[in-house]
Amino acid sequence: MRLVDLFAGCGGITLGIAQAALANDLALEIALAVDFEAEATDAYRRNFPSAQRIATAPVEEFFDGALGSEATLAERRTANELGERGAIDILVGGPPCQGHSNLNNHTRRVDEKNALYLRMVRAAEILAPKVVLIENVPAVLRDRHDVEGVVARAERRLGELDYRVEHRVVSVDSLGVAQTRRRHIMLATKRGEVAPASVFEHIERNEIRHDLEWAIGDLAHVVGDDPRDRPPQAKADNLERMRWLLENDAYDLPNDRRPKCHQGAHSYKSMYGRLRWDQPAQTITSGFGSIGQGRYMHPDLRRALTAHEAARIQGFPDYFDFSTCSTRAAMATMIGNAVPPQLGTAVFSSLFSAGSFAKMESEEPTAAMA
To answer: What is the pTM of this model?
Structure first.
């Protein structure tokens, strides 16, 4: 299977697809992976050394034309390097989502980054892959970059290109990831491949649930030279807050023990909160090393999460290598921004097991998907 991964990050989606391919006796060839951040492409290169091309560049350097227009010089060059039209089986990507984030109060849902979503559709126009997967935050559904909105526009244009398209909001804790992160998934398949609706139905029927203890219970007292296992250092006031939570067997900090700026009416109950072993974690962000950034206090210890624990909660196996990150902050950003691999695994396990990419006659789920 030949893959192009745009806005690739460290390769979370790629890893999930590779795992699904391996389980179905298929080989995955990474024809092109692109990300703007050098830290991300360094990590991608370390973990996928056989990738044919990994580029540190804006995606627009490869796909810069307007939707529906003739291919530009850059796009013709990209297509020629990747082979004849239709030579790419899978196109995936997670465009930057800062413009859609509810934390981005100034430019929420009108950020220019939102238009990058449509670069995925333009790449589909040029490459004609069999399957397109675009992931983003759920707030992308409320995008106001133009009158139509990027999701509706993407869905309409992919339909015009003879793809069947479905999009859903998926909670990754239903995919076996021990956190409550929610993602918006748009899946498009060429006719002759398994219908996207069948894939989503299969995922919903085969939920896998794991709690925090399953994910990180064995890491509580791990010590060693691995930077991932270094416990984050807390200031005295946060150490005292964590002491109080443990001694009182509490999971939420009362207002009078919060910083003064957080003592009024607020909706940040999880800030300075303690995690529970028998539940999934909240969404992991780059702030997982500080209890002031969210509910990131270890269930039993006076500390926030280590990078190793955060990577596990994001669904990354221990063999995935984040050592190319130059600083602890860079590693935290890499892990916090990553896409849980199980998302790619769930979607493509359904496609592979149902015979997609094999020119199936039926568009209905097969017994293999049941």
So the answer is: 0.89
- 202 and 315 together in one domain: no
Residue 192: burial class (beta carbons within 10 Å; 0-12, 13-18, 19+): middle
The CATH number that applies at residue 279 is 3.90.120.10
Please check whether residues 185 and 253 belong to one and the same domain. Answer: no
What are 330-350's pLDDT values in tens digits? Answer: 999 999 999 999 999 999 999
Inter-axis angle of helices 117-127 and 73-82, nearest 10: 60
Buried b (16+ CB within 10 A) or exposed e, 308-329: bbbbbbbbbeeebebebbeeee
Q: Which domain holds residue 258?
A: 212-337
162 within some domain: yes
Does residue 308 have a pLDDT over 60?
yes
Residue whose C-alpha is closest to residue 322's, from 40, 28, 27:
40
- Split into its structural domains, the chain has a count of 2
Q: Is 97 a catalytic residue?
A: yes
Torsion of CA 163, 167, 173, 179, to 10 degrees: 110
Instruction: Tell me, yes or no, whether 367 lies in a domain.
Output: no
Given 10, 97, 261, 325, the catalytic residue: 97
pLDDT tier for residue 362 given thresholds of 50, 70 and 90: very low
If asked whether residues 258 and 148 sit together in one domain, one would say no
**174-207 confidence digits (pLDDT tens):** 999 999 999 999 999 998 899 999 999 999 999 9
268 with 344, same domain?
A: no
- Residue 21 and residue 134 in one domain: yes
Q: How far apart are CA 197 and CA 201, in angstroms?
A: 6
Answer for the pair 63, 75: CB distance below 8 angstroms, yes or no: yes
